[in-house]
Please model this.
Amino acid sequence: MTINRRRVMNWVLVFSLGFNFLVIGGITARLMAHSDFRPIPPSLSWIYDDLDESTRAKLQPMLREFGEISLPLRGEMFRAQRKLGELMTQVPMDKEAIAVAFDELRKASLVFQETTHAQTISVFELLNPEQRIMALRFLSERISPFGGNDRNDRDKDGRDTAARDDNNTADR
Model:
């Protein structure tokens, strides 16, 4: 590498580092300026996104509290998943340890689900019927990672298409 090319690379490196420090500093300053900000629980953020400002203001303290409760439970579930993944790739496989890890994952998932389901009920109690319908519509319109809708046999109105098809076949 020539001396000129080396100098250019050094200056590019210095510029890149400076830019990265600027971005990281900006993000850090923003987080420190808003130290009262606590994330909304991921399991409930979808409800919050489509609400009007007055409803958001009413729900925000509750959702912060729910986040403080559910985020550690979610973290425990992810830790159990990582532990299971590590055990599944060990050579030789320890079947007993894997069975215990599956049991721990099941328990952590159940606690997380029970908690977030109870939190969802508490939030839905504060929503008006229109907002509840909107939230439920969001749930029914989610796309499955495997393609298609999560609700495989439901049309856009939420009716069971398999039952409708059976009725149409019976009418013929």
Notes: The two ends are 81 Å apart (CA to CA). Residues 84 and 90 are 10 Å apart (CA to CA). Residues 150-172 have pLDDT under 50 and may be disordered. The chain has two domains: 1-37, 39-140.
